[in-house]
Design goal:
The chain is an alpha+beta fold. 60% of the residues lie in helices and 12% in strands. The radius of gyration is 39 Å and the shape is extended.
Length: 642
């Protein structure tokens, strides 16, 4: 239950062993490869070169192709699997098999080629549909579309706005020239589609009249044959394309067995990309390479033994305090505190060389959540949901931490619900009343509605305990760092003040409080100089008094959320009981409690998180650590069995 100690690793190996060594490090998963701090003014450093990074782009491209193929198959033949199915395992040898990978690459290419052909077919269909729309108004015209004007006769196809009456247009044409005829071919909402035939000598005058009415010439000169003939050909082409698309979709629907190899290929490409990224951080000479990184101290003996088989030189050293900001952080916790990694990582990891907050936070976080939720029914649901997911799906990472935290908080929620007599609010009371007419209530040590003040005082007392704990942790840390005066005037002084207040309220003695007041004044006087002594006294009083009062008062949210959750559940149960029908009651109670449960799951987490991150962490926590990210076989779809 601490921050794992790290060692800085420097290794010089033979260039011929580089790929094999990187694969060995990835297999072991205990080294984070970092960029060496090179001095470019030193001719030795400036002579070093970077490895070629073309493999990284190739790995990313391969992963993208595999993911694209998986997306295609998802549309036609989704991979089978239940919601709670765990990630399947694959032996490392099979996972890294180049033969299996090559078959998967061919499968990805086949799927993506079919998908590209489908996209081309759909684009061609859209083009044909657009052509059909152009030709459809002219399908009744029994005239080849390539027919053009002659020296004696002008022939032109075009459109007029639909709001222009055809008899008016025909009259204008006749008035412009007696050797002209305007024929309507088709009419729709917006246009009249017409054919104009006139003597060449009258064409200019007729067209001027038509243009005044909104005449627009149709561009059909690239077509040959009649519109009906062309439409028939387009329909046949569309039919053929649709048949080809249906055949491709049927073929894709039968490729469900490719989901597994494509997922393995995606994971393998991701692992290759991680290795190539680490490879890009190395420095090379003609015969050797330099690798720098971080390795957990507990993993070094095993790593040293593995590297002994290679002709390489290794050096490990403990980081100096000035290097702590660059040292990655890895937390080591037990089954009870590990789920709190989710909270710590969401806020910020602790700085290297400081304290792991999880063991100090876990009892308070889990207890406070149970106090705010405080219902046996909700607690049972939380425990069952978390336990089932952990058992069935075996999740890792943040989701695994969430499920573990759900179980732990479910336990305290159930216990607090037993103490307050809550089971989905007063669900059992209403059920007994509706079914038998009798009175029933679960035994309770205290209830949110009747003992509100006691719960409020208890919540603030718990908050005071947590704040004192944070101060104690800070006190010990300052003593270890040699900050004795800071520890005395920041923590001891206010402990004396708190003790003095308690003794004075109890009517025992005000002397302890007076001593605390003297220390409050003495602190700024001793630690500051000049006028800062005076301002320091007032600043210390204001900041500490308002700060501690505000922090303790903030814990009243424990009572507020307990009361709100209990009241909302009882309100829905009461509403459901009004009709006097057990079925209606169950429906309304189920809906209301589901909503209340969902809101409280999130609300209690957010408020609990605030109490830890603001009121508690502010007393001792030093954040700013960056996570330890070793070169490993990190996968999305499969667990690699090493």
């Amino acid at each position: 239950m601490a921050i794992v100690k790290m060692k800085r690793l420097r290794m010089v190996g033979m260039a011929g062993d580089r790929e094999e060594l990187l694969r060995k490090l990835q297999h072991m998963g205990c080294v984070e490869v970092i960029q060496p701090e090179a001095d470019q003014e030193d001719p030795v450093w400036s002579a070093l070169t970077r490895p070629d990074t073309g493999g990284l782009a190739a790995a990313h491209e391969e992963k993208a192709q595999a993911e694209r193929a998986l997306e295609v198959l998802k549309r036609y033949t989704p991979a089978k699997g239940g919601l709670l199915d765990p990630k399947p395992g694959v032996p490392e040898g099979d996972f890294l098999s180049e033969e299996r990978a090559e078959r998967a690459r061919q499968a990805a290419k086949a799927v993506n080629d079919l998908d590209r052909r489908l996209a081309a077919i759909r684009a061609e269909e859209n083009k044909l549909e657009a052509q059909k729309e152009v030709l459809r108004p002219w399908m009744d015209l029994d005239l080849p579309l390539e027919t053009g004007s002659t020296p004696q006769v002008a022939i032109q196809l075009g459109t007029l706005p639909a709001n222009v009456p055809m008899n008016q247009a025909e009259g204008e044409v006749q008035a412009a020239g007696g050797l002209a005829q305007l024929t309507e071919v088709y009419t729709e909402r917006d246009f009249h589609y017409c054919m104009l035939v006139c003597h060449a000598s009258q064409a200019e005058g007729v067209l001027e009249k038509l243009k005044a009415l909104g005449w627009s010439r149709a561009n059909l000169r690239d077509w040959t044959g009649t519109a009906a003939e062309n439409l028939g050909r387009l329909y046949q082409e569309t039919k053929a394309l649709r048949e080809e698309a249906a055949s491709i979709e049927e073929e894709l629907a039968g490729m469900g067995e490719l989901n597994a190899p494509l997922r393995q290929l995606s994971d393998l490409a991701g692992a290759n990309a991680q290795r190539e990224e680490s490879r890009g951080r190395l420095l090379d000479t003609a015969q050797t390479f330099l690798l720098e990184g971080w390795v957990p101290a507990e993993s070094w003996p095993q790593l040293e033994k593995a590297l002994a088989a290679y002709p390489c030189a290794c050096e490990v050293s403990d980081p100096a305090p000035e290097d702590y900001p660059q040292v990655p952080v890895k937390l080591k916790n037990n089954i009870l505190t590990k789920p709190l990694n989710m909270v710590t990582e969401m806020y910020s990891l602790p700085a290297y060389g400081t304290l792991d907050p999880n063991p100090l936070m876990a009892p308070f976080f889990i207890l406070f959540y149970g106090i705010m939720m405080a219902d046996m029914g909700y607690g049972l649901l939380m425990m069952l949901a978390g336990a089932v997911i952990l058992k069935k799906k075996k999740p890792g990472g943040t989701f695994g931490h969430l499920c573990g935290l759900l179980v732990l908080c479910g336990v305290t929620t159930f216990i607090m619900g037993a103490l307050t007599g809550g089971f989905f609010g007063d669900f059992l009371t209403q059920v007994v009343k509706l079914t038998t007419g009798g009175d029933f209530a679960l035994p309770a040590l205290f209830t949110p509605l009747e003992d509100t003040m006691m719960i409020l005082v208890g919540a603030m007392c718990l908050g005071f305990v947590q704040i004192i704990t944070g101060m104690a942790v800070s006190f010990v840390s300052k003593l270890k760092n040699g900050q004795v005066m800071d520890a005395v005037f920041e923590e001891v002084t206010w402990w004396i003040v708190f003790a003095g207040l308690g003794l004075m309220i109890a009517g025992i003695t005000p002397i302890v409080l007076a001593l605390g007041g003297v220390l409050v004044v003495a602190g700024p006087v001793v630690q500051n100089q000049g006028f800062g002594k005076v301002t320091g006294i007032f600043g210390s009083l204001y900041n500490h008094v308002t700060g501690y009062f505000g922090d303790i008062l903030s814990y009243s949210r424990l009572m507020a959320l307990m009361l709100a959750g209990s009241v909302i559940a009882q309100v829905f149960n009461t509403l459901g009981a009004i009709p006097g029908n057990i079925v209606i009651f169950l429906i309304i109670s189920f809906a209301g409690n589901t909503l209340n449960f969902a809101l409280n799951l999130l609300g209690c987490y957010v408020h609990d998180l605030r109490l830890q991150c603001l009121e508690y962490f502010g007393k001792f926590y030093q954040d700013g650590g960056r996570p330890f990210r070793p070169l490993d076989l990190n996968t999305k779809y499969y667990d690699v069995v090493k």
